[in-house]
Design brief:
Blueprint: H1 2-22, E1 27-39, H2 40-45, E2 49-59, E3 65-77, E4 89-102, E5 110-127, E6 134-151, E7 156-167, E8 173-185
Antiparallel strand pairs: 1-2, 1-8, 2-3, 3-4, 4-5, 5-6, 6-7, 7-8
């Protein structure tokens, strides 16, 4: 499984390099924000949090497939232990390079898509006070899969998407970023 993820990441990065020069005229830039919903062990320790996202997507001419690079910054606060408050937070900074498949539909205003890719995330956990004082930071490979929808025509479009993201920390940091935003550009 690990080698398969490395291969998928290498193919994604290679696609970004090849497509960037070919499809520069059809780039779309986006910004968004939303909610981080922690999963698994991460959910046991942290509450839902917020995120900010920036992305650029390159369309492959005459194809429903494109390549997108995302950057994300987000934070979640630690849950209290019983009646004892726990200070601190988990900070996520990272990026994914993804292959995007724009699902062909007859309605030109609504454009659903699915995406999958890999990248790198830094997970920093801080708890400055108390007996559980912690300050750790790890940068690890991450992968994500998800779906979304673009709405609108012309140079500006709105989007909403959800993904499953797993950062290969120990234990894994898994979460669902739910993002809404706007994109600008051609195509």
């Amino acid at each position: 499984m690990h080698r398969l993820l490395q291969l998928a990441f290498a193919v994604t990065v290679g696609s970004v390099v090849c497509v960037t020069t070919v499809a520069a005229q059809s780039a779309r830039f986006g910004v968004g924000g939303g909610l981080i919903a922690p999963l698994s062990t991460y959910k046991d320790n942290d509450k839902a949090g917020w995120l900010a996202d920036a992305n650029v997507e390159f369309a492959i001419p005459l194809s429903p497939v494109g390549v997108r690079v995302d950057g994300l910054y987000g934070e979640t606060k630690h849950k209290d232990i019983g009646a004892s408050p726990v200070d601190g937070k988990t900070r996520l900074i990272g990026g994914l390079a993804s292959v995007v498949w724009n699902i062909p539909v007859p309605a030109p205003i609504v454009k659903p898509y699915v995406l999958a890719g890999g990248g790198l995330y830094n997970v920093k956990i801080t708890n400055p006070n108390g007996l559980l004082a912690v300050n750790t930071s790890e940068s690890k490979f991450a992968y994500g899969v998800g779906a979304g929808v673009n709405v609108g025509v012309g140079p500006a479009r709105f989007f909403a998407e959800g993904r499953y993201v797993s950062v290969r920390t120990n234990p894994h940091t898994t979460f669902i970023p739910l993002t809404v935003g706007v994109t600008f550009g051609s195509k």
